[in-house]
Design a protein that fits this description.
By secondary structure, the chain is of the alpha/beta class. The protein is built from 15 helices and 19 strands.
Amino acid sequence: MTTAMLSLLQKYDLPTPRYTSYPTVPYWDFGTLTEASWKETVVNTFLEENGELCIYIHLPFCENMCTFCACNKRITVNHAVEDPYISSVLKEWAMYRSLLPATPVIREIHLGGGTPTFFSPDNLEQLIKGITKDAIVKDDHEFSIEVHPNYTTEEHIKRLASVGFNRISLGVQDFDPKVQFVINRIQSFEKTKEVVNWARKYQYTSINIDLVYGLPHQTVRSVEHTVELIKTLMPDRIAFYSYAHVPWKSKVQRRYSEADLPAAADKWAMYSRGRELLEEAGFQPIGMDHFALANDKLFTAAREGKLHRNFMGYTTTRSKLIIGLGVSSISDAWYGFAQNEKEVEAYEAKISQGILPLVHGHQLSEEDTVIRRKILELMCENETVLDHPVLDPAFIEAAFDKLMLLEADELVKVSGRKIQVTEKGRSFIRIISAAMDAYLWRNHSGANTFSKAI
């Protein structure tokens, strides 16, 4: 690593949002959103989208605690929780369904967690049939599920395929035994390969593998070992995420200390070596943390300038309406965000009373909507024009002051109001986006809010 790159890593390894939304969640103002205004926003966006929507369903239960995970989850081996939870999710969908003025056209369904395959194949099939029975499913739909291979059976894969699932994402993180032990996720390559083979047997058209760099006790060698094994499976996509160390949010991350985490330079070396190996195998970098083969829709979307980013990361569809169902799920109606209750009991209690289980949210201002689009363009297309009548001139001036400093470090090129991300800058895209964040400009927040950028 050059001295110049080491200097950049030390300079920009700062707490920074991941920009799966704008405004980012810490700056949401729930006072701007009422249940009535949220319902109105959903209906208006539904009509604007000609009835098309995507659905995210959060299935929070896990039998085992992975200590690196900052997702909302409930650890239990009691599978009696399945039936009441499925019933609640279907009741929540019925509430949304009653709002919509026409038959919804479902473009995507995504099952996340938690461990979605904690639920039995029967219950997952019941859930999906309950969602789609009074809807139109697009011919080119994408139904996807996140799975933990240890808790996934062939029957899961088969039954999900029978109700339209065609995409699957397998969590791996790292195959090094020492890393697996400290993050409490013991998972063999053989089990992972078995699930990949089932997905191909039942004709899933896109297989994704999630890898993480920067984990406790992880090394460049363990990343090399993991990537070399994954290359033998040749999935269609790979998400190669930076580990987000947020122990103030996820207390289980206290099982190891900051001293066990790699320094920024070591973390960068892991990413660089992993990327090198993936590119050698034919995977093309997409956005800030994805790789795809040339036959995958994600690659096509990036090449054609149609890439999008939302709470599920990079995606191929630019739907403005995502209905989030289940505990802690976030809905996105483009002009507003709404998040559900974060505890299972509170969520199910509100559902039983026929109340939308909203606990947090934000109605976007005109400024919010403009900046949201600018940051999306930057993260998906590597360029944007930062100029609009609704933007505060003082904010624009401050943003370009920061961008000029980034240009001096060769991370962007600035021409008038146009900003272009350089090849070097793509690895610092979160830092570049933060320069255009009006909430950070007005209310700078650092430690104990966001994970570090590198």
